[in-house]
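Students often ask why we bother encoding 3D structure as a string. The short answer is that it lets us treat folding as translation between two languages. Here is a chain of 316 residues written in the first language.
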Amino acid sequence: MKAVQITSYGTSDVLRVNDIERPTPGAGDVLVSVEASSVNGHDVIVRAGELKMVSGRRFPIGVGLDFAGTVVETGADVEGFRAGDRVWGMVHPRQKHTTAGAAEYVVVSADRVSHAPKNVSSVEAASLVVTGATALIALRDSVHMESGERVLVRGAAGGVGTAAVQLAHAMGGHVTALARDRHAEFLTDLGADEVLDYRSTTSDQIGPFDVIVDTVGTELHCYRSRLAKGGRMVTVGLSPSALAAIAASSVHGSRRIRTFSANPGTPVLGEVADRVTSGALRPVIDSVYPLADIAAAHQAFESGGVVGKHVVAVAA
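And here it is in the second language, the structure alphabet:
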């Protein structure tokens, strides 16, 4: 089979599409024929060597956090899945993988997949695995958003941002999206009640908000000051400055900044699938690349300005 791997850390130039032996599922595993994957920040930082404490220095290392496809084979003791089932899921983000989601086949534990939503294609589904799960965990589990609350989504045009706008709207929030002005009509269609251009709007000009979902990871202390009494803020845009702001917020004041590492299992993935099926969450795709052009997909991701996700179509 073909699989994207790296044999050294570095820029997108280190990505290789290699011919390797197809893996075999063990007990509790499923073998999935991958039809699509997507590019996530996690993929980029693994490739660049920023997670060496997890991925180590033994190569090759597989690339691709998420996937959508069809079950080919199940190992012993697997219940709830059988060959032919359309599924989506993630490899474990805190484990090293010789092969991962950007491959023609992937083996994962059955508790890391769920049945994929039936009303979208695998390419569309791949755009929602990480983004949908991250946005759902952020809003529901991290900040415990309630209907009627004022919600700010920062970085609203990106993958997690577009999912957060949709889910916050579906959960009854009054949603303010912070993005480029040219995305206003698009984000309004997704459910934003107000769209502000981040280039001409400073943090002290907006708010207060009950909930802030940040996907950028900068100036967190400025946006934290825009929280109303009892307000909550969560960031998924981790950086050294973001980590410092998170630490400071836990010491000074009640409006601490929350963060988490999205690592959804079958229940969360199933809930996201239900929201896609209901129409509360729909795919937003910036561009689709063939597996052979995954380096270009990484380059596009790192260039920024994305609207939704960059998806890698694995199956022809």
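Translate back mentally: DSSP finds ten helices and 16 strands in the chain. Keep this in mind for the problem set.
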